[in-house]
Amino acid sequence: MRFSKLFRNRIDFFQLLREQAEYIVQSVEFLTSYTESLNSSDAEQVKSLEKQADQKRFELIQDLDKTFITPYDREDIYMLSKSLDDILDYYKTTVKEMEVYQIGQCPELAEFMAVLKTASENIYDAVCSMQKKPKEAIQYAVKAKKCENKVEALYRQAVAELLKGDDIKYILKMRELYRHLSNCADRIDEASDMICHVLMKEIS
Q1: For 129-145, what is each residue's pLDDT tens digit?
Q2: Within a domain: residue 53?
Q3: Nearest to 91 by CA among 180, 191, 197
Q4: Per the structure, how many domains does the chain have?
Q5: Is 72 helix (H, G, I), strand (E, B) or coil?
Q6: Is 132 helix (H, G, I), strand (E, B) or coil?
Q7: Do 45 and 14 contact (CB within 8 A), yes or no?
Q8: For position 77, which CATH number holds?
Q9: Angle of helix 168-203 versus helix 74-100 axis, rounded to 10
């Protein structure tokens, strides 16, 4: 390893992670609006934010390679960044599924989106608190994990309601969309676990 790495300007990894988390909050806002109105500009915003977040993650990975001293284990920073990116990927692919399945305005998604929005905000607050308030960050992460359970309950209720109908095509495509949103909540749960993993190593 070159000794020059020791003397580089310190890179603010906390800021890079915060920016990734901010993309999540912005994305879920536009996704919520898209499920309500099917406005194509909202869909494009979700896709654009995912691309911007990919660039931010690429920047973080490059900086990890250049930097000798990092605030946490570099593997943990990498995995936390990946878990944040996975949430954004699922928000983007939710839009794509709605487009492919030609799903119209869906008031049934309102409860799902409300919970995902809250969970995303908790992830953002957790990431923003990691540097100076790690115990608060863990509390926010735990709140985000609880949202995953709520989405699972909504998924079961929604599928049960679907099965009361007779339109097989509608049942199949909506079940896939509900499943996708449930998987999105799983990604939020994984990000929450990663935040707790990183911080518990520091606190202990």
Answers
A1: 999 999 999 999 999 99
A2: yes
A3: 180
A4: 1
A5: coil
A6: coil
A7: no
A8: 1.20.58.220
A9: 170
Q: Tens of pLDDT along 122-131? A: 999 999 999 9
Tokens 């049934």 map to which residue? 108
pLDDT in tens, 96-112: 999 999 998 888 899 99
- 3-state SS record for 15-70: HHHHHHHHHHHHHHHHHHHHHHHCCHHHHHHHHHHHHHHHHHHHHHHHHHHHCCCC
How far does Cα 197 stand from its chain's mean position?
Answer: 17
Please identify which residue in the block is written with the tokens 């879920």: 28
Tokens linked to 42: 């909202």
> How far apart are alpha carbons 103 and 97 in whole angstroms?
8
Closest CA to 46 of 7, 106, 88: 88
Q: Which residues, including other chains, have CB under 8 Å from residue 67's CB and lie 6 or more apart?
A: 5, 8, 10, 11, 74
* Assigned domain for 138 exists: yes
Distance CA 26, CA 7 (A): 36
- Identify whether 6 is part of a domain: no
**Mean pLDDT value across residues 46-55:** 96
Residue keyed to tokens 């969970």? 119
Instruction: Name the helix (H) or strand (E) containing 93.
Output: helix 74-100
Residue 3 maps to a domain: no
- Residue 50: give the domain boundaries: 12-203
59/123 Cα distance (integer angstroms)? 21
Is residue 166 classed as helix, strand or coil in its secondary structure? coil
